[in-house]
């Protein structure tokens, strides 16, 4: 992984929640996370720390965020406004981490930076090691089915547009996403087959990986029928088994 593209984006990433895809992602995590009162939360590839901050709002006693980009972590610390329940660190989530263990690990946009099976497995192993036995994972990843389907949209959809850059061995794609916020920005990521997520998660020791489609969407600026036809992202959960 490299943080260079995000060092250039910096606090512009905070604008994500002003566009439809950002609102949908926040809705997804809030729907899945359940009761976290008194729990310790870890957000990997945290960017500017949105979900770590939300976890505190939702009742967590501690939330730690990790990102490879110094600029992103700097912005996250500014947003934290000195709240001692929030903590942010610079680290590569594709390399071994030593962060302790948490009740819940959030990975809204981590696994999409793995370009192959080896890199994906390394990320899953970090997730496993950072979870307490019985702990839960909540994640968001790109939807490869969208960019391979006949309904692949032209132009901005849900506040973002996608451009296929390269084909990967094994059936994946490298894709550039542009988020059409007030201060637009772009970044590249990898769309890998769902089966590869499942395989590497299991190899890392995770269990009960489930894909969790969004339901009951009610946003005034979101065409829910179009979203559900072929959503731009997928959500998933998994657990670390009790030893």
Keywords:
single chain; 243 residues; alpha/beta; Rossmann fold; 7-stranded mixed beta sheet; 3-stranded antiparallel beta sheet; 8 helices; 28% strand
Kindly, what is the distance between the CA atoms of the first and last residues, rounded to a whole number of angstroms? 31 Å
Give the uncertain stretches in residue-range form.
none
CATH class: Alpha Beta
Number of helices: 8
Any idea of the CATH topology? Rossmann fold
Question: Could you give the order of the helices and strands?
Answer: HHEHEHEEHEHEEEHEHE
Question: What would the average pLDDT be, to the nearest integer?
Answer: 91
Based on the coordinates given, report the CATH architecture.
3-Layer(aba) Sandwich
Count of domain modules: 1
Q: Kindly name the structural category.
A: alpha/beta
Query: Main β-sheet, in a few words?
Result: 7 strands, mixed
Approximately what portion of the residues adopt beta-strand conformation?
25-35%
Query: How many DSSP-defined strands?
Result: 10
Radius of gyration: 17 Å
- Can you list the strand order of the major beta sheet? 3-2-1-4-5-10-9
The CATH homologous superfamily is named Vaccinia Virus protein VP39
Q: Summarize the amount of helix as a percent range.
A: 25-40%
Shape: globular
Organism: Aspergillus nanangensis
GO molecular function: methyltransferase activity
Protein name: Methyltransferase domain-containing protein
GO biological process, one term: methylation
Overview of the molecule:
Keywords: Methyltransferase, Transferase. It holds the Pfam family Methyltransf_25. This is Methyltransferase domain-containing protein. The chain has about 240 residues and is α/β, with parallel strands linked by helices. It has a single domain, classed as Rossmann fold (3-Layer(aba) Sandwich). About 30% of the residues lie in helices and about 30% in strands. The protein is built from eight helices and ten strands. It has helices at about 5-10, 20-35, 50-55, 70-80, 115-130, 145-150, 195-205, 225-230, and strands at about 40-45, 60-65, 85-90, 100-110, 130-140, 160-165, 175-180, 185-190, 205-210, 235-240. The strands form two sheets. Strands 3-2-1-4-5-10-9 form a seven-stranded mixed beta sheet, sandwiched between helices. Strand 7 and strand 8 (about 185-190) form a beta hairpin.
